[in-house]
Design brief:
It is built from one helix and 36 strands. The protein is mostly beta strands and 335 residues long. The chain folds into two domains: 218 residues, 3 Solenoid (Pectate Lyase C-like), CATH 2.160.20; 30 residues, no CATH class. The strands form six sheets. Strands 2-5-8-9-11-14-17-20-23-26-29-32-35 form a 13-stranded mixed beta sheet, with no helix packed on it. It has an eight-stranded parallel beta sheet with strand order 10-12-15-18-21-24-27-30, with no helix packed on it. The longest helix is centred in the last third of the chain and has 21 residues. The termini are far apart.
């Protein structure tokens, strides 16, 4: 195939992408100028063969890093960032705004994205594909547009911790954290606010979702789609999600556990009525049997039969002592 060259183009404010790249081998993309849109990629195979240089998005260079390792990318300016087939990278203290997708992590291993800001994107803040051991922590993802914060495809052992995933659109944005076919994902300590679905889980298993504040999302706070099995969900705060619905979460998977099996502590649900289990919308009749209060402390429910039983023992003890000590002082000692 002859070389394909995409050179010296100007693209301004396109809704679905300034330049959408569907083929990579023998392709050169050079010296293009994009404003408030950006480059989009779909396929992962062969992306490291793409020749991409001297491009800019929003008057900042496009960072395209391929097949590098053991490096730090800190306090630098990029309009858009691509990490392709990289290993052991730390990306820290970067800021992006008004791009379709700010950060792509593709076919990578042991990449950390930390303390970055992504503001007012129009499609996704960050996309991770076919990568392992990615850590995404302490970042701010915020947009006035319909923009997913973090999206994973076919990843393993991703950790998403202490991020803010927030939308402020009038009709609410898409989703806070969304992942497909991404097993052993850990989602911990994030604030997920005013999206559509807070956390959307599809075909993913053995994941752990804990200590997140999932608040004011217009649809379910957590949506477990079909074939999302053996996941563990506990110590999260579900606050006013799925307005007018009968549950703040939906579980279409199987064998998902909505409490900590060790401590017997579940989640906080702002609409819990204080009686019995919290029912989760589910064909499998999922439930949280150990709802927590706002401080994530266990709500202790008093069982009437266990109150009556000790009182019954006290009455019997008094009767026996009266018979043995008739005419003498009666005392009661309870151990």
């Amino acid at each position: 195939m002859e070389d394909i060259k995409v050179l010296n183009n100007t693209c301004l404010r396109n809704k679905w992408g300034g330049i959408y790249i569907l083929s990579y081998e023998n392709v050169s993309i050079e010296s293009n100028y994009l404003i408030e849109d950006g480059f989009r990629v779909h396929y992962t195979k062969g992306l490291d063969k793409l020749r991409m240089r001297w491009n800019s998005v929003n008057n900042k260079p496009v960072g395209f890093f391929s097949n590098i390792g053991e490096e730090e990318i800190i306090n630098r300016e990029f309009g858009q960032l691509f990490l392709v087939s990289c290993e052991s990278l730390i990306v820290k203290n970067l800021e992006f705004s008004k791009v379709l997708v700010s950060i792509y992590v593709i076919n990578c291993d042991y990449v950390t994205i930390q303390n970055c800001k992504v503001l007012d994107n129009k499609a996704d803040c960050m996309v991770v594909r076919n990568s392992r051991n990615t850590i995404i922590k302490d970042n701010l993802f915020w947009s006035r547009y319909s923009c997913d914060s973090i999206v994973l495809f076919s990843c393993k052992k991703t950790v998403i911790r202490n991020n803010t995933c927030k939308s402020s659109t009038k009709n609410y944005g898409p989703d806070g954290i969304k992942f497909f076919n991404s097993n052993w994902t850990v989602i911990e300590g994030n604030w997920i606010f005013k999206n559509s679905f807070g956390i959307f889980v599809a075909e993913s298993s053995n994941c752990t979702i804990t200590y997140n504040v999932i608040e004011n999302n217009s649809a379910y706070g957590i949506y477990m789609r079909d074939h999302s099995d053996d996941n563990l969900i506990h110590h999260n705060s579900f606050i006013h999600n799925n307005y007018g619905g009968d549950s703040q979460a939906l579980d279409k998977g199987s064998n998902n556990t909505w409490f900590d099996p060790l401590t017997k502590e579940g989640n906080y649900w702002s609409d819990y009525d204080g009686e019995g289990n919290y029912s989760i919308a589910s064909s499998a009749k999922s439930k949280d049997p150990y709802p927590l209060n706002e401080d994530l402390d266990r709500i202790h429910k008093t069982d009437f039969q266990f109150v009556i039983f000790p009182l019954f023992l006290i009455v019997i003890s008094l009767t026996i002592r009266r018979k043995k000590r008739k005419g003498k002082q009666i005392y009661l000692q309870i151990h």
